[in-house]
From TrEMBL, chain A:
Keywords: Cell membrane, Membrane, Transmembrane, Transmembrane helix. The chain crosses the membrane at residues 6-27, 39-59, 65-82, 166-185, 206-227, 247-275, 287-306. The keyword Membrane applies. It is found in: Cell membrane. This is Cyclic nucleotide-binding protein. InterPro entries: ABC_transp_permease. It comes from the Bacteria. CDD domains: TM_PBP1_transp_AraH_like. It is a multi-pass membrane protein. GO terms for cellular component: plasma membrane. GO terms for molecular function: transmembrane transporter activity. Signal peptide: none annotated. It comes from Cephaloticoccus primus.
UniProtKB/TrEMBL annotation, chain B:
The lineage of its organism: Bacteria, Pseudomonadati, Verrucomicrobiota, Opitutia, Opitutales. This is ABC transporter domain-containing protein. SMART domains: AAA. Residues 5-241, 240-482 form the ABC transporter domain. Pfam families: ABC_tran. It comes from Cephaloticoccus primus. Keywords: ATP-binding, Cell membrane, Membrane, Nucleotide-binding, Repeat, Sugar transport, Translocase, Transport. It is found in: Cell membrane. PANTHER family: CARBOHYDRATE TRANSPORT ATP-BINDING PROTEIN MG119-RELATED (PTHR43790), D-ALLOSE IMPORT ATP-BINDING PROTEIN ALSA-RELATED (PTHR43790:SF3).
């Protein structure tokens, strides 16, 4: 029973919020429609992609506060590349590499210099945000190349097709889930998060592993930045402020522990969906945004509280 | 003799473990009373009872003729019993007078009365002849010896009649020890009774008038310091029958397998041999093992080992601290056993299906008698003894040919201990493993090892076959007593 609850707890939460918004008849009609679910999924893409990387970090016992800033910087770099006439084939890997580079800086400082992830990534949060504004001359970067404009939309909003961004997210989520559960590197991430001293004692190269985790996560933030760019169709250095907290919240609602050693990609994806559904549903209920913010805050606390209860009841 | 504090028949058990089984103690006013005993003899449990941290299961305590049963440390302090812990308990960022007044700062309407607080602090320091210390400096800036004085000053604020000092000189230099003895003499002259706990017999002889020896949770002797020869006290500390808890075996030694490098010469262990390392806490035994396993950097070990390299050389290490270092309590038994050989378990490109981990781990549940339902169960759910078996299974699964075991039976029940002894003895006898065991429990070393090395002050001071040691001899070597 407990095991079932552990596995499907986040799902029950998702079901609960969907049912909640389906009760009033006039909202249900649109809320439960195909186009709306497409909108919800598309709105989830950016947070979900970044949350894949954040899950790796949080499971290893770390945290990354620079995610939002790295996403904004990536979108600016992508826009500048397109403006400079680069093809999408060149721009996409370049932007992902930039994200990975910033992650590598984080990881090297954290693992190599043994500094607290919170402090290092708090610093990187400012650095990346500032660098983005600098590169963009403190304004939005506009370009004409339509190469990635179709990533986050579909031609016909009423059919069952999904935008490419959503497919990429689903595919990567499956890949990362398998990676975490079924590879040596993935299991070593859990080992480090559960007890870093033990991992070291057992011969795991903790410094290299941690550096790689932040690098990999940085690549995901870069990709999320590209999705951000595809959605806005301009590079905006002031976008995604505070988004790192949504990303962390998705991971936590999905059942990961901030102290490391536990968490799952499936949970994280459901966590990201729960937040999107909440936002979307609240809008259709006509609730003001401040009320949405309060709701999401409550959901985070309740989710973690339920998780704690479950952990305590374990024999 | 009128007594200030009298204890009779004190008993205390933690679960199935009996820490104290009938302790008596009597202390006169203005007396320094030495409390002597091996590691694990029950000294610290007794002191925790006296200072109100824990309550005894049975027995009576009398303080100046009245029943004494402190509910907590604050209550003990109110009755005039204060304790100076071995690990100083000062707040490093706060200054001297804040630390001395901590928890009892004089105040008016919630505002700290700084002048009164400073005056009290200065008064307390004056009693210790240290009124020259700058009250405004944070205590972290003072030497260890001065910090200790500050700690004692704090204890003096409650006007204690009994002051308990736990290994007060363990981190002091000779000169500072002298100064501390002067302070103790001063307090004694004021009529304060002092319970002085220490390993250092010579030091104890100098400062204390009377002594009580604890062994296995019981009082085995007490008397006048000056009237008792040192050898007699040593005998009381270690005298016991070695029960048949330990498996009988005959060692057939093979070739040399591993050499510990460190101060006092290298120690080589051979295949099929169990080498014990004895010594007091802080003698450097764990440090020697950790440095040789590559966990801590050391200039004395050749070849810059890392845990990774050592595992590849089939050398395994069992940490003394299961919770903090030895095990990942949140993860499964299988993951804990398999972690050192993940790359090996994965046959293709880092792919490691969970099923393969379970198949690898499952047999160990039976082999070592680990009480668990399945190997996917979290290690944190198991009892201490079963956790230790999981930690040991990691070394055996790897498989390590050289086993470095740091306090392998710490904190586990007697039944599990006996099982572990059996396993360790068999590993050496049947599988020809080379085993090094650190233990603070002498009977364990005598019962298990072929040879015992003794460490003192960071160096190996002696190494002989077990048959050539006697417990008093070994204790003498561990205490650094010559002759």
């Amino acid at each position: 029973m407990n095991k079932v609850l552990a596995k499907f707890g986040p799902f029950l939460g998702l079901l609960l919020v969907i049912v909640l918004f389906s009760i009033p008849g006039e909202v249900r009609e649109y809320f439960l429609s195909v186009p709306n679910f497409k909108i919800i999924l598309t709105q989830t893409v950016i947070v979900a992609l970044a949350a894949l990387g954040m899950t790796l970090i949080i499971v290893s016992g770390g945290i990354d506060l620079s995610a939002g800033s790295v996403i904004a910087l990536s979108s600016v770099i992508g826009a500048l590349c397109l403006k400079a006439g680069w093809s999408a084939w060149l721009m996409v890997p370049a932007v992902i590499a930039c994200g990975a580079f910033l992650g590598a800086l984080n990881g090297t400082a954290i693992a190599g210099l043994r500094m607290t992830p919170f402090i290092i990534t708090l610093g990187m949060m400012g650095i990346a945000r500032g660098a983005g504004k600098w590169m963009a001359n403190n304004e939005t970067v506009n370009y004409t190349n339509p190469a990635i404009n179709g990533w986050m939309t579909t031609a016909d909003p009423f059919d069952f097709s999904m935008p490419p961004g959503a497919w990429v997210t689903v595919a990567l989520a499956i890949a990362v889930a398998v990676f975490m559960q079924r590879t040596v590197f993935g299991r070593q991430i859990f080992a480090i998060g559960s007890n870093e001293a033990t991992a070291r004692l057992c011969g795991v190269n903790t410094v290299l592993t941690k550096a790689l985790i932040y690098t990999l996560a940085g690549a995901f933030f870069g990709l999320a930045g590209l999705m951000q760019l595809a959605r806005l169709r301009q590079g905006d250095p002031t976008v995604a402020i505070g988004l790192e907290l949504d990303i962390i919240a998705a991971v936590i609602i999905g059942g990961a522990s901030l102290s490391g050693g536990s968490g799952s990609i499936l949970g994280t994806m459901v966590g990201a969906l729960i937040m999107s559904v909440l936002r979307n549903g609240s809008q259709q209920m006509g609730w003001p945004t401040y009320f949405q913010e309060i709701m999401i805050g409550v959901v985070i606390i309740v989710a973690v509280f339920l998780d704690r209860l479950r952990a305590q009841r374990r024999p | 003799m009128s007594s200030r504090l009298r204890l009779a028949g004190i008993e205390k058990s933690f679960g199935a473990t009996r820490a104290l089984g009938g302790v008596s103690l009597e202390i006169a006013p203005g007396e320094v009373h030495a409390l002597i005993g091996e590691n694990g003899a029950g000294k610290s449990t007794l002191m925790k009872i006296l200072s109100g941290v824990i309550q005894p299961d049975a027995g009576t305590m009398t303080l100046e003729g009245r029943a004494y049963r402190p509910a907590d440390t604050l209550d003990a302090r109110r009755h005039g019993v204060a304790m100076i812990y071995q690990e100083l308990s000062l707040a490093p960022h706060l200054n001297v007078w804040e630390n001395i007044g901590l928890g009892a700062l004089p105040s008016r309407l919630g505002w700290v009365d700084r002048r009164a607080a400073r005056q009290r602090a200065r008064g307390a320091l004056a009693r210790l002849a240290h009124e020259h210390l700058d009250l405004e400096r944070p205590v972290a800036e003072f030497s260890i010896a001065e910090q200790q004085i500050i700690e004692i000053a704090r204890a003096l604020l409650s006007n204690p009649r009994v002051l308990i000092m736990d290994e007060p000189t363990s981190s002091l230099t000779q000169a500072d020890t002298r100064k501390l003895f002067e302070v103790i003499a001063q307090l004694r002259a004021e009529g304060v009774s002092i319970i002085y706990i220490s390993h250092f017999l010579e030091e104890v002889r100098e400062v204390a008038q009377r002594y009580t020896v604890l062994k296995d949770g019981q009082t085995v002797g007490s008397g006048d310091m000056a009237a008792t020869p040192q050898s007699e006290i040593l005998q009381m500390m270690v005298d016991r029958d070695v029960s048949d808890l330990y498996p009988k075996r005959r060692a057939t030694l093979g070739e040399a397998r591993f050499t510990l490098e460190g101060e006092g010469g290298p120690l080589t262990v051979r295949a099929g041999e169990i080498l014990g390392i004895a010594g007091l806490i802080g003698a450097g035994r764990t440090e020697l093992l950790r440095a040789n396993f590559g966990l801590d950097p050391s200039g004395q070990v050749s070849g810059k080992p890392t845990p990774r390299k050592r595992w590849r050389e089939r050398v395994g290490f069992l940490s003394e601290d299961r919770k903090e270092e030895g095990l990942m309590l949140g993860l499964s038994i299988a993951e804990n056993i398999g972690l050192t050989k993940y790359p090996k378990l994965s046959r293709v490109a880092g792919y490691l299906p969970p099923r393969r981990l379970s198949v690898m781990a499952e047999p160990w549940l039976g082999t070592l008698g680990i009480k668990a339902r399945v190997s996917e169960q979290a290690v944190g759910d198991l009892s201490g003894g079963n956790q230790q078996k999981v930690a040991l299974a990691r070394l055996l699964e790897h498989p390590a040919e050289v086993l470095l075991l740091d306090e392998p039976t710490r904190g586990i029940d007697v039944g599990s201990k006996a099982q572990l002894y059996e396993v360790i003895a068999e590993l050496a006898a049947k599988e020809g493993k080379a085993i090094i065991v650190i233990s603070s429990y002498l009977p364990e070393l005598f019962g298990l090892c072929d040879r015992i090395a003794v460490m003192h002050g960071g160096a190996v001071v002696a190494c002989k076959p077990t048959a050539e040691w006697t417990e008093p001899d070994l204790m003498r070597a561990a205490l650094g007593v010559s002759g």
